[in-house]
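Can't paste images in this forum, so I'm doing it all in text. The chain is below; anyone willing to post the predicted structure tokens underneath?
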Amino acid sequence: MLPPTPPSGPPPGSTTAPSPEAPSGPSSSGVTPGALLGEARADLRPVLLGLAAAFGAAVVLTLLMLLALVVSGTEPVDDGDASGAGVLLFLPFQVLGMGLLGTMGLSFEGLSGSLYAPVYWVSGTYVAVTALLARRAERQAARPTTTLERVRSGALVGVALGVVLLVLMRVLAMRVDGSVAHTASPSLFLGALLLTLGALWGGRWSARPRWHPALDLDLVVGLRLMWSVLLGWLVVGVPLAALLALVGEGVDAAVVLLVGAPTVAVYLVELAHLGALSAGGEHLFLFSENVGLAVVLTLAALVSTLLVSVAWHRRRMRPAGADAWSWAVLPLAGLVGGLVLWVAGVLVIGGGIAEFSGQVVLAPAFWSMFVLAAWALLAEGLSRTVAPALSPGLPERVGRLLDRPRPLHAGEQTAVATDGDRPAPRPRTPEEQRRDRRLVLAGAGVVGVLALLAIGYRVVDSTFFGPEDRVEAYLDAVVAGDLDEAQDLAPFDFEPEGLAFSIGFGDDAATDLFTREVYEAAEERVTGYEVVSTDVSGDTAEVEVRLEGLSGEPTADLTLYRDGRRWGVFGDWVVGEAGLAGIGSIYEESATLTVNGVQVDVEPGADQWLLPGSYDVDPYADNPFLELDGEPTVVEPGGYASIASVSTPQPTQEFRDQLQEQVDAYLDECMASTELEPEGCPQSAFSFGDDPRNVEWTLDQAPDLGEIYLSGEFPETLYLSDGEATATFEADESYGFGRPDYQPQEDTSYLAFQVEVDVDGDDLVVTFEP
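Text version of the structure:
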């Protein structure tokens, strides 16, 4: 049902005159370029002075931020850094650009970044000063300007200002060490155009403010009340927030809040009225972050709503209950106000590397505007029940603060200034009063039931379906060795929604060792846990747990993401980043490993997923001649770990026995020789004489087989040494003079030789190279 057309005429007793929007003088049709320039020149002075005031505000904010850095112990510029001093010189100009809705862009050697964060103190200064001077010029003009002239002149000056600012911000870019930062961007041009057009049009219109007869003036009153709510949070809420930041975080944090106070006020309004902030696909609810602060802000929102209801009761044009439309005006104003706050609260951070880029948008949740409309409906109900009883008893100063001159339609000349001057409304009948009470009680009951349902839902969702519940289920599976269940709850390939891009370090990792048999056989593994803390932020949660069974009982941080709904109602959480699992690198090409005594077939050389614990990795378990003599590798919770940097292989006893057997046979054969230098043997003896005879070799000491160094790949080359043998023989010492004179002699030989060891099935093949 459409609302009835509101009365467009003046109240009884008022006088009327021709509309000021119908100026005398020549028509604006067929305007010449000279006339256009004349209109633009008339608006040039307010714009330039407004721009100067905005630059002054930018300078003040810059100095405030620099002072905060100095107080916090940070030097804004290094001594002797000329480029840094240039940055400080040009910074106020770029702050001015951000105040005119420009986007700060940064580029450096293929890297890029951007920041859209309007500095509304600068924006407000520019709009207020420009509008004030435009209103003064309008009042001093020989004739009122028409709407067409205002739009035409404002658009022309706005376009010119946008072009000039684009060039100026690019020329005055901040440059240091090859990086360039400036606000010359499409948003700067568009912001300069819109702010200039709005300030000039609004300033000249406010000289003789009249609204179109088709517009419901109650809607104007409601929008003004929404603006008053934002101003109240800006004046009261932001200073208190800055004070808390000063005590808790320091001067720099408090200054940042004050510099961004208008945006902070927008966020406070949204959060206090049970709305939410949205960033990167996640939602931030105040009750999820700090219940105490949420309760305080919600109580403040209730007080604010009560004040709005009293002011609405005193200012509304149409009597309460005049028609059904009267119930919808204030909620509609709340919806429009919420839409404006949604646009004003947008912050955008972007970045890129080469052709890859992404951005994160922080803004009030889109549905929060409907929540504000619901609060406005509550204020409407209070204005019909509670406000009539409170309004007469208000102090005079408070009453004047709540009263404002009512808006006027075009053609009206007399404004009703205060509640006391407004004609008394028709007395309400008892039946109408009872009907309003029933409606308000029914509405309050519905709101109360919805609030209880919402609170109960949050309690059930956080208690039985919250991140802690999912973490406990995951850790129970790890403790029980149910690694299939653990992998379902913490999938290795999970990627949260809302990320511009992601890098999967474990995309190629295998799960050959991620088995119950391997993990249960570990000497050190997770046998219990304790949840230390839980921090929920929108759709992300950080849960700190202490792990029992591992050396030192370390703590680990598990990141969880809200991923859909369980049964379509309650939040469903998933353990992200593979939970406790980490990547292990095995530097071995063997296709069969023995891990914790369990033989496993693996992909040679592939990385492996492993849970925290100790792992005794033996790639030679099926080799009768090689074994490892190292300590088990301990895998820490999460992250990337080198879990099996394999130790040097050692010879098995079978290797030693077969090698010793063949070395003994070789030496026995050599010791049986009757030559001083037998071929293919390691020994040799020297004779002091001719024609040695009766040669006998005795093995005094066999070569040492104690320390054998192997590479792990056959054939292996070994060097055996530290052996001794003695040769006894007779030699002719006559040296050719007279009869032969054989005398006994003895010589000792050092035994050292090289062997090549290969494998033939279950046998070693030893080749001797003396």
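The two ends are 111 Å apart (CA to CA). Residues 1-29, 79-83, 415-426, 498-505 have pLDDT under 50 and may be disordered.
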